């Protein structure tokens, strides 16, 4: 194995083990020594790849956001109709957000660790573009009344993020289905 391959393997191992620990215990309860012990590397190896625990967390968050984005896009793209793509994508986001791994990292710890402004910027970069594209296509197709897209994206994104945060604290398994139904009714009100 080349040095580049070893470095990449070390980076992947650090990401995998820190993600596992952050999910199980939460960011605040995980120390660097736990991460390097679980990964079987030295602190020097960790600092070779990341500036510290917060930088490692950002990389884990980016990985989680990318996975959620892929799941949402794949679900939406499976639908032939533009409207059905929007609804399916929004439902897929809520479903993905119900995953405890996603909840802990993306919805609970990320705003606390990174601060609200950085978390919002990363969330917007990860998902707002897709929602904006979907809404723009629906407006151009005449499915949704012509209107500025930017505020609509923020309203829908905020509603879905808030619903996902609520679902993260909910113990009722029926709440996900109820939330999807409420979201569908809200989306239906946009149709022209």
TrEMBL record:
GO MF assignments: DNA-binding transcription factor activity; transcription cis-regulatory region binding
Key words, A-Z: DNA-binding, Transcription, Transcription regulation
Domain (HTH tetR-type) ranges: 8-68
Keyword DNA-binding: yes
InterPro entries referenced in this protein's UniProt entry, alphabetically: Homeodomain-like_sf, HTH-type_TetR-like_transc_reg, HTH_TetR, Rv0078-like_C
PROSITE patterns: HTH_TETR_2
DNA-binding region(s) from the entry: 31-50
The keyword Glycoprotein belongs to this UniProt entry's keyword annotation: no
Short name of any one Pfam family annotated for the protein: TetR_N
Designated name of the protein: TetR family transcriptional regulator
């Amino acid at each position: 194995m080349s040095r580049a391959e070893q470095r990449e393997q070390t980076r992947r191992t650090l990401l995998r083990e820190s993600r596992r620990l952050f999910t199980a215990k939460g960011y605040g309860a995980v120390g660097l020594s736990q991460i390097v012990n679980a990964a079987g590397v030295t602190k020097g190896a960790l600092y070779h790849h990341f500036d510290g625990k917060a930088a490692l967390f950002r990389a884990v968050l980016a990985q989680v956001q990318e996975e959620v984005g892929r799941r949402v896009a794949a679900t939406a793209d499976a639908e032939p109709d533009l409207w059905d793509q929007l609804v399916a994508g929004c439902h897929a986001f809520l479903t993905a957000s119900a995953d405890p791994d996603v909840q802990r990292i993306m919805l609970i710890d990320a705003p606390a660790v990174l601060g609200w402004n950085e978390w919002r910027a990363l969330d917007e970069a990860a998902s707002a573009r897709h929602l904006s594209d979907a809404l723009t296509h629906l407006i151009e197709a005449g499915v949704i009344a012509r209107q500025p897209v930017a505020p609509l994206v923020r309203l829908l994104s905020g509603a879905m993020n808030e619903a996902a945060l609520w679902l993260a604290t909910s113990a009722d398994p029926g709440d996900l289905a109820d939330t999807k139904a409420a979201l569908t009714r809200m989306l239906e009100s946009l149709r022209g």
